[in-house]
Design goal:
The protein has two domains: 17-157, Response regulator (Rossmann fold), CATH 3.40.50.2300; 167-227, Winged helix-like DNA-binding domain superfamily/Winged helix DNA-binding domain (Arc Repressor Mutant, subunit A, Orthogonal Bundle). β4, α4 (103-111) and β5 form a beta-alpha-beta unit. The chain is α/β, with parallel strands linked by helices and 228 residues long. Helix content is 51%, strand content 12%. It starts with 16 loop residues before the first strand and ends with a helix. A six-stranded parallel sheet has the order 2-1-3-4-5-6, sandwiched between helices.
C-alpha cells in the first residue's frame, strides 16, 4: 500500500479507537503510524488471532482491523477470529485487510450480524491511503465496504462450488458421498490409494474448506456435493 501524505491539519473529529491485528511487524507499525496521522488511536496492535480476541475484550474498540493469515498456521486465523468476534459482538465493526480472498469464511463474515459494519479489502487493490481511511470510517459508522474482486469470487463460488473440480475429482467426491473409504475408492477407480489421497487433497483445497480434522473436512465436502 503506497504511502501518501495529507496536506491538511489532523483533526480529532471522528476519532476512532482501533484494535489492529497484523503479523508483519513492518506493516503493523506502518498502519499504526498512518492511522495515528489521521487522528485515530490504535489502542492495541497484536500479531496473532488469540491476542486479537483478548485485545477486543479488554479494549472494547470502535472498530477492528485485521489481516487473514496469522500465526500459528498462517491460514485463515485472523478471518476466523473476526467471524467469532462478530458472533459474540454483532455490532462490532470489522475491516479485513488481506492479500487474498479467503472464500470459506469471507461469506460468513459478510453475512454476520445484519451485514452492516463490515468490510473486506485487498491490500494490493487499495490505491490510496485516503481510500483506506475513508473505508475504515465507513465501516466504523455501520457501513459495508467490499472490494469488487471479493464480490466476484464469492458469487462465482456460490454459483457452483464444484466447478473447479476435474471430472476425476468429481468421481472421487461422489464415492466419498457414498461413504466409501480411500481403499474402496481406489479399487472402484482402479488407481492407487496414494492417487486417491492426492485427489481428495485437491478437492478439499479447491472447495476452500477451512482447516479441520480430515473427517470433518470430508463431511463438508460431501455437503457441498449434495448442495450442488
Amino acid at each position: 500500500m503506497p504511502a501518501e501524505t495529507t496536506d491538511g491539519p489532523l483533526t480529532t473529529d471522528g476519532r476512532l479507537r482501533i484494535v489492529l491485528a497484523e503479523d508483519s511487524v513492518l506493516l503493523r507499525e506502518g498502519l499504526i503510524g498512518l492511522l495515528t496521522r489521521f487522528g485515530h488511536e490504535v489502542t492495541a496492535a497484536v500479531g496473532d488471532a488469540d491476542a486479537l480476541v483478548t485485545a477486543v475484550a479488554e479494549q472494547e474498540p470502535d472498530v477492528v482491523v485485521t489481516d487473514v493469515r496469522m500465526p500459528p498456521g498462517f491460514q485463515d486465523e485472523g478471518l476466523h477470529a473476526a467471524v467469532r468476534l462478530r458472533e459474540e459482538r454483532p455490532g462490532l465493526p470489522v475491516l479485513v485487510l488481506s492479500q487474498y480472498v479467503q472464500r470459506a469464511y469471507a461469506a460468513e463474515l459478510l453475512d454476520s450480524g445484519d451485514g452492516t459494519g463490515v468490510g473486506y479489502l485487498l491490500k494490493d487493490r487499495v490505491g490510496q491511503v485516503e481510500q483506506f481511511v475513508a473505508a475504515l470510517g465507513e465501516v466504523a459508522a455501520g457501513g459495508t465496504v467490499v472490494d469488487p474482486e471479493v464480490v466476484r469470487q464469492l458469487l462465482r463460488r456460490r454459483r457452483d462450488p464444484l466447478a473447479r473440480l476435474t471430472p476425476r475429482e468429481r468421481e472421487v467426491l461422489a464415492l466419498i458421498a457414498e461413504g466409501k473409504s480411500n481403499s474402496a475408492i481406489a479399487r472402484a477407480l482402479v488407481v492407487s490409494e496414494a492417487a486417491v489421497g492426492k485427489h481428495i487433497g485437491n478437492i478439499l483445497t479447491k472447495l476452500d474448506l477451512p482447516p479441520a480434522d480430515e473427517t470433518h473436512r470430508r463431511v463438508l465436502a460431501v455437503l457441498a456435493y449434495l448442495r450442488s
